[in-house]
Design brief:
Layout (H helix, E strand, L loop, with lengths): L18 H12 L3 E2 H4 L5 H6 L11 E4 L3 E2 L9 E2 L9 H12 L3 E6 L10 H14 L4 E5 L7 H10 L3 E3 L9 H4 L6 H14 L3 E8 L5 H13 L4 E6 L16 H14 L4 E4 L9 H11 L4 H11 L1
Parallel strand pairs: 2-5, 3-4, 5-6, 6-7, 7-8, 8-9, 9-10
Antiparallel strand pairs: 1-2
Amino acid sequence: MSSRRRKPDWLKTQPPSGREFTDIKETLRERDLHTVCEEANCPNLGECWSGEGGGGDGGTATFMLMGDRCSRGCNFCDVETGGMEPLDPDEPANVAAAVAEIGLDYVVLTSVDRDDLADGGSRHFAETIREIKRRDPEILVEVLIPDFGGDPAAVRRIVDAGPDVIAHNVETVERLQWPVRDRRAGYEQTLDVLQQVDRESDIHTKTSIMLGLGEYDHEVYRTLRDLRNVGVDIVTLGQYLQPSRSHLDVFDYVHPDVFDTWQRVAEEELGFLYCASGPMVRSSYKAGEFFVEALVREGKSVETARTTARAGD
């Protein structure tokens, strides 16, 4: 099915607005920072930037590190490919300053892929985490990392930096990894990254799956089972939306009831701490709220998480 047909009513969103939205946008531009919210045309940008987010004063924004151009060309993603530029050595400090200025207490960091760098940019990523924690150890940091080409040393650098959540997205079922993802990504490689984090730390792990790409129910179930088997704690499921006509078509618009069913399967049958599932859900959507919910289900509190983070510094 082509995505050029009319979208169902449940996929309609409001354009971004509000004082918080405007303030965050101005802060980002002043510091020459990028967000995946903007670069990937996230449909929830207005809601997250203008809402309560993770409990901070300025909502939730996902900072995108290491530039706005990616070394890979996934067919679902609207981030531009190629033309890589040198890393900005001031970016870690600028991101930390922006977090403080906006007033966030839950921060999401992600990045483009930088296969052009020997370490995949893992040192730069880790330094940004540390800079945020140095300024305020109580800030909770979630990172959505690339696979770093499957390099365990690079993943270990992220673990050692002490974030509170490490996410790496599987994106789709095994059969559809190509053509959905760049050929340098892969199902097993993603599972390996997530399993390494679970094996080497107590950090919560998280991943995201897109529906509407032509996957079958049994494939979604198997993917969820495989993720749980490697120790993933939190999973999100959302509807794939075609960013432009040059990207993959939407195969199907999945009804909200189906997303509700997958949430019950993930939580009640497979034992995920939390599953956020809905047509408009994205990997970082209300990330702070979902992390707090996961802590509650473990019988923990945000203060416990912050104390653990401080002890690990």
